[in-house]
Amino acid sequence: MKAYYRECLICVELSEWEYVSFVYNNYPCFADLEQVPFKKAIDIQLLVVFDAFDEICKRIESKSE
Length: 65
Hints:
The chain has 65 residues and is mainly alpha-helical. The chain has one domain (2-64). Helix content is 63%, strand content 0%. It is built from three helices and no strands. It has helices spanning 2-10, 16-26, 44-64. The two termini are 25 Å apart.
């Protein structure tokens, strides 16, 4: 899901039609359409969630080594 959101951020500079086309045609099959972002910037709260997710992944990987 993070990769999808990052791709959406790259496409923000496209026209509205191109952006909407991209986000709806490329959303992950497991995602709900309500999760399609329509903002030009990421909320601070979402960045905190991304950072926490990255930290959890790092800790899981370090324990498995």
